[in-house]
Q: What sequence folds into this?
């Protein structure tokens, strides 16, 4: 599994710079490549369908993504699998197509199944990425959520209604569940929200194309709603936070 390593004093250094000015630090911590990329995480259960891993490889780009098997409706299974594959590979194919002749691209990606039941499939994708001419590698996190009864994608607005100031209050109190060391939860959350000047601006970001235009993604587990927001590279590139479902009114 890809494990991000961030040295605590970098976080402190970044916070000091953020407090002094709005400029992003040019000193960044190198991203660690995946150490266990042989397989992706699939939470097995007794539901009627199963998941298998597929791997896309082109040059130095290797991406794993899931495919559904044994779904009762074979036509719907094919439709959903095509959508999953398209979503899983889209950011990497776009990067490959945008490369300049003197650039080389390296990426390793795996997925984690956040929720698998008869109604919903929630998939999170994690990856290490590096373009040869860039100053440093970067981590990429995005999600795909699917309504298995309709075959349609699910977004934040499908899980939370309305997305309002009450939800923003819950979001700002959400628990950080990323891989940074303990004790930096509050600082990481502050970094995630500091790019928005007001709650109204954050609301706009969450509701514009369901947050994707701002790099915001959502997933769901048995017990929580996960929100993933971008943060500076030295803090890991993204912050993964969760709100207990019991705290949501709808």
A:
């Amino acid at each position: 599994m890809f494990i991000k390593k961030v040295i605590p004093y970098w976080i402190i250094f970044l916070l000091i710079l953020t407090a002094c000015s709005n400029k992003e630090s040019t000193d960044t911590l190198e991203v660690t490549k995946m150490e266990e990329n042989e397989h992706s995480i699939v939470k097995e259960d007794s539901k009627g369908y199963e998941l298998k891993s597929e791997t896309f490889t082109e040059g130095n780009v290797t991406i794993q993504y899931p495919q559904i098997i044994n779904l009762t409706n074979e036509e719907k299974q094919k439709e959903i699998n095509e959508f999953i594959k398209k979503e899983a590979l889209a950011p990497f194919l776009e990067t490959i197509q945008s490369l300049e002749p003197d650039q080389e691209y390296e990426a390793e990606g795996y997925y984690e199944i956040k929720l698998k039941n008869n109604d919903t499939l929630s998939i999170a994708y994690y990856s290490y990425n590096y373009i040869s001419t860039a100053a440093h590698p970067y981590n990429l996190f995005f999600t795909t959520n699917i309504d298995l009864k309709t075959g349609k994608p699910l977004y934040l607005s499908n899980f939370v209604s309305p997305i309002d100031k009450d939800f923003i209050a819950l979001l700002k109190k959400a628990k950080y569940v990323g891989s940074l060391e303990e004790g930096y939860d509050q600082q990481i959350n502050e970094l995630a929200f500091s790019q928005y000047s007001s709650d109204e601006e954050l609301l706009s970001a969450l509701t514009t194309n369901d947050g994707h235009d701002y790099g915001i993604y959502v997933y769901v587990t048995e017990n929580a709603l996960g929100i993933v927001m971008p943060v500076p590279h030295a803090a890991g590139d993204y912050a993964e936070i969760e709100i207990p479902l019991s705290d949501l009114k709808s």
